[in-house]
Known about the structure:
- By secondary structure, the protein is of the alpha+beta class.
- The model is unreliable at 1-29 (pLDDT under 50).
Amino acid sequence: MFKKYFKAATLLLTLLLFIASFISCSFSRRDDGNKMVFYTSHRDDIKTWDPANAYDTISLDVVPAVYETLYQYDYLSETYKIIPLLAADMPTFSLDKLTVKIPIKRGVKFQDDPCFKESNGKGRELKAQDFVYAFKRLALPALQSQGWWILDGKIVGINAFHDKLLETQKTELAKIFSENIEGIKAIDDYTLQLKLIKPYPQLMYILAMSFTAPVAEEAVKVYADEQGNLTDHPVGTGPFILKTWDRGRRVFLEKNPNHHAEFYPTTGSIEYRKSGLLADAGKPLPFLDQISINVVKEQQPAWLNFMKGLEDIMGIPKDNFQQAIVNQVNLSPELASKGIRLHIETGVTFYFISLNMKDKLIGVNKFLRQAISSAIDREKWIEIFTNGRGRKAVSALPPGVPDRPVNSNIKYDYNLARAKELLKKAGYPEGKGLPPINFDMRGADSVNRQMGEFFTKQFSAIGIKLNVIYNTFPAFLEKSKQGDLQISYGGWAMDYPDPENVYQLLYGANKAPGPNDTNFDHPEMNKLYEKMSTIDPGPKRADLIMQMDALLQEECPWALGYYHSTYAISQAWLLNYRGSDIITNKYKYYRIDKSIKKRYRNMR
């Protein structure tokens, strides 16, 4: 009987392998016809398509392809220069910098969609009122928008509006939501006015974030869930339209045929000019006809797909780094011979261990947090999981951010003897009496599991036991939003290059469901943040940041980790790629050269 079942299983396995091989070969020979298709993959699924709640790296990889903002970053500038997108021009500020008027570009239309019933499914023109509506949505309590912090305490009348909604019965919400807010007005169809409570030096960066993208009220009425989220049916003004979303498997976007006139940059830095990134200067955007994104949870299948030419760009997995890179900065001859290109970007992404101050064990015991920080061998962490591509974080701010503390060091860096002493001070000598600590990871793939094992060994060296929990990325984000993590693997890709964007993660008013998932609420840090966030760069702000850094180092809501440098490889046929942690609306610039693709495809 066993032999019979074994023989059947063997035949089934052979058949499955044959089918997989056939599919792989079919993909490797796929022909997109005259269409320009970009292929890539994500390691997990998108959490949401709603710009009011898209705040994770995976969602923000695609949401800006569908939704646009008033302003954007100049794609080929060597600095993070802000330029108009849906705005017709740069804003005008009053002398006291508290009143802002923004002209809206005329003739921009939302994508065609059945929600526009009055126009038989044809996308209507964008108006200033659509921005007012989008800003007001951020204040909806039921939506629990992770973008609320960009308005909280900054716009005249917005907090009173939020509080009124909070106290309103569900049946009356629509009536209250329709009320005017003094600080957010459509002066006419093409002029948006904002009134600020205090100067907001980061406002231009904020207006380039997806949180502020215009949302059509018609789409919300038709597609929103009970909480008001547009989770799975985006309706934007952007260069691409979501055609299919097979959850957990694939995202497929197509060019928006009614996208407003937009053109490839005509100027750029000398570096980008030398790299050929201005060859398409002045040409209409977007170039791509379609974008195909598969969910590939494990890095090795994604790597094999890339090497077969089935993906156009990817990061370099740690297990393939030695195969791909020579002397840390050069592409290996094997990959270079296939026309593959290497891109190294010093970014503004960093990683840390997040310690939940709301937790009854972690939050009340500073010595325990300091012991945890002192138990982490950061050099080994960087070497094992980045192949030496990271730099040890010595403050909360990555290199290159203005007013970053100079000569800073981690106060509670790796030191096992001190870690054991601190654990003793915490009341748990050699870990005795300390219950296992839940440690949440952002994924469940092999790399996350290796990291879970790594930190388990790190902390066991001083007597701390971990219960490692492996989540899907959306599940992790939901736990974070609810403040339900004890300690967790934390990371942050800066939204804009200003210290305020990092320290707002440690500001008490931004506790979960806001971006402060540590729930750190320290009176002195709050006071320093409020001062720092309203003044321009310079010595005064730098001094405040030094004080904030010292407080962070002492209180340890984060055990600092490392700053990440991005290594990406792209196929020879992918043109106009530039890496950036901050520029998210990148797909409209990409172009596929089909003649190059045909030539190199035969080499795979």
